[in-house]
Amino acid sequence: MKIVLFIPPSKFSKNVARDLVYGCWCKGKRIAGVQFPPLSLISVGTVLKNDGFEVKLLDAAAEGLALEEVITRIKGFDALVMLTSTMTLNEDAQILNALKKAQPDLLTIVFGGHVTAEPKTTLERPGIDIAVKMEGENVIRDLARAWRDEQDWRAVKGIAYKEDNEYHENENYPLIDNLDELPIPDRSLLPLDTHYYNPIVKRLPYTTMFTTRGCPGLCTFCASPTFYGRRIRSMSAERVIAEIREVARLGYKEIFFRDEIFTVFKERVMKICRTIIDEKIDITWIASARINSVDREMLGLMKKAGCHMIRLGVESGVQELLNNVKKGITTGQTEQVFAWAHEVGMDTHAHLMIGLPGETKETIEETILFVQKIDPTVVTFGIMTPYPGTPFFNELREHHPELGDGTCMDLSKLHTHAYYNETFTALSAEELQKYIRKVYKKFYLRPGYIFKWLKRVRSLDELKRLTLAGTNVFGFIWGKD
């Protein structure tokens, strides 16, 4: 059985973080664009390869392929596996439908956060045969085994499908409890001579890694627990180091850890860092953390081990708004963490939203001042959006059933346009869309900030990246996006 792992030639695809299974949008233009290698697909593909299946990755977005070329390249494959998301599902389904018209016997399988939250409406779209809920590795492997061995694929746990126009949904497949059992992703599946770009990465080529799954947070705006569950499951420090060694052997210079909370288990982090230092592994890296999951000791050792940037969900500078979305942190904790990062010399990437429940013009101004106070290296702002699979979306849909499965929203403008925010804030959509430009202007166009970045430039490559980043930021601020 021949299986193709597929990223479509979509106008959205280069802006969707398809290495994050629950479909995080990473529009990226504010910081010069972003491309991630599709690690979640590669993880599925590696499990399939190890089980004896012939597997190929076709990243049509990264390779710049037209639909006609895709149709040619998938001839001869029996099944296609695609990671989809709320903002791309409608377009993805159109592409899959076109592929099935060209090759009617092609089996199409989709997975991801949106599919997990909305399997029934996903299958209402022509072109999609099977929806896989939650983690894909074991479910898709078992599906492939069933077809290969001529068993009843309908009995496989974790799937939804339609037969004779009737919807069927099986019980969920158990989550993978021991992540050490997952094989190291086979990065040879990635297209040759395709280097994925990211403006905050210092050294190329870079790759991504996942070392944990799950998040105990109660944030009402986040879909991660719907897909991975609230219980944190982590790879051992030994398993993480084994993959880091392999990545370095392959010639990668930097790792972008895509875990929601890389720092959740302190002793694990400290052991990983000490091993990198002791073995003198030539790798730099970026990681994400919750504000309340780090301390100065950990940040200091991470910096010594090559971590040059920590990404932190700040969300707002107003405590009341943080409480409204059950963020579970305080503004005081945020100030302390950024102060520690400055002390140890680590760059910071702050993620914030405007348009949270209870937001007013005054609270936005407070957040602007707060961000300037904590002084992150880079910042990403967005307008809070009701996203399928989140408690916030489910509550909002009770009052606005026209939301449906969420794909009615023009999510090509996600993070820069307002959706229903006027129903839970004191601002209109037009006001929020003006403010999102203002918050970027107030942060990025400070003379001191610009001068600080110019002093950091040490190479022509850095200058090119800074120029591209500045062009995109200025273009957005002045309304050219």
Automatic annotation (TrEMBL):
Q: Which InterPro entries match?
A: BchE-like (IPR051198), Cobalamin-bd (IPR006158), Elp3/MiaA/NifB-like_rSAM (IPR006638), Methyltransferase_Class_B (IPR034466), rSAM (IPR007197), rSAM_horseshoe (IPR023404), rSAM_sf (IPR058240)
The chain positions of domain B12-binding read 23-154
Q: Which PROSITE patterns does the UniProt entry name for this protein?
A: B12_BINDING (PS51332), RADICAL_SAM (PS51918)
Give the Radical SAM core domain ranges: 201-425
Tell me the GO molecular function terms: 4 iron, 4 sulfur cluster binding; catalytic activity; cobalamin binding; metal ion binding
Keyword terms, alphabetized: Iron, Iron-sulfur, Metal-binding, Methyltransferase, S-adenosyl-L-methionine, Transferase
Q: Which cofactor(s) does the record list?
A: [4Fe-4S] cluster
**CDD domains, per the entry:** Radical_SAM
Name listed for the protein in its UniProt record: B12-binding domain-containing radical SAM protein
Origin organism is Candidatus Falkowbacteria bacterium CG23_combo_of_CG06-09_8_20_14_all_49_15
Q: Taxonomic classification, please? A: Bacteria, Candidatus Falkowiibacteriota
